[in-house]
Amino acid sequence: MNISKWFFANWYDVLNSIVEPLVIPYRKQTTSKCEGEVVEIGGGTGANLLFFDHAKKITILEPDKYMRKILEQRIHNIKIPVKIIPTIGEDIPVSSNSVDSVLCTLVLCMVDDVEKVINEAHRILKPGGKFYFYEHIKANSKSGTIFQFILDPFWKFATTGCHLRRNTLEHIQNSNFTDIQYDYFNLNVGIPFTIPNIVGEATKKQE
Ligand SMILES: C[S@@+](CC[C@H](N)C(=O)[O-])C[C@H]1O[C@@H](n2cnc3c(N)ncnc32)[C@H](O)[C@@H]1O
């Protein structure tokens, strides 16, 4: 048994219960726009499940068995067909050009290879398909940069691999996606520093 992974999966929902009211608007802003056939990368414990208003079929990728155990219990309450695949976003077992929407919320901070995951999201989307993202990112203020630098090693340990200083926006901007639209905002969770976030969508170019 991997104690830290088990602890993170179970602690995640407790932490979520504190910050979730602040996060829900961004879950809605992304998840509720997902249409048709959807792939969610790193679904965790299923925090987005309630917001899939326009999805017809959802495939959730989740590599962590402790997260998956909680997720598997939650999908029973969902009316849309949901399939869980125990895999990573760097290598998605889904055909190219086959899905309408791909969703990533608070995941690109944790994957091993952000570029590969974004490329995979792009590959599996149909032309014209949408990639929806909500992620915390690298700070651009001096105080935020110092705060993230100090906290990052502890945070990575406590969360089993979440990176506070990732420049996820730059990765998305350098990808093959077009029409990248996003809001940048600072989330205030009641600590002395706000957390920089992005929420938005990008499109796979029509052929
Ligand atoms: C911070 S949680 C976010 C969970 C959920 N998306 C949410 O919004 O609450 C990050 C999730 O990404 C998963 N993850 C980590 N590395 C991954 C990878 N390479 N590919 C896909 N998911 C990954 C973790 O297991 C975890 O469930």
How would the blueprint of this fold be written?
Elements: H1 3-31, E1 35-41, E2 54-61, H2 65-74, E3 82-85, E4 99-105, H3 114-124, E5 125-136, H4 142-158, H5 168-173, E6 178-187, E7 195-203
Parallel strand pairs: 1-2, 1-4, 2-3, 4-5
Antiparallel strand pairs: 5-7, 6-7
Bound molecules: S-adenosylmethionine.
S-adenosylmethionine is lined by residues 41-44, 47-48, 61-64, 67, 88-90, 105-107, 110-112, 162.
Give structural notes.
With 207 residues, this protein is α/β, with parallel strands linked by helices. The chain has a single domain, classed as Vaccinia Virus protein VP39 (Rossmann fold, 3-Layer(aba) Sandwich), CATH 3.40.50. The chain is 35% helix and 28% strand. The chain has 5 helices and 7 strands, in the order αββαββαβααββ. It has a 7-stranded mixed beta sheet with strand order 3-2-1-4-5-7-6. The longest helix has 29 residues, at 3-31. The chain is globular and about 45 Å long. The model has no long low-confidence stretch (mean pLDDT 93). It binds S-adenosylmethionine (SAM). S-adenosylmethionine is lined by residues 41-44, 47-48, 61-64, 67, 88-90, 105-107, 110-112, 162.
List each distinct ligand once. Answer: S-adenosylmethionine
Count of the separate structural domains:
1
What is the tally of beta strands?
7
> Structural class, please?
alpha/beta
| Secondary-structure arrangement, i.e. CATH architecture | 3-Layer(aba) Sandwich
Mean pLDDT: 93
Give the CATH class: Alpha Beta
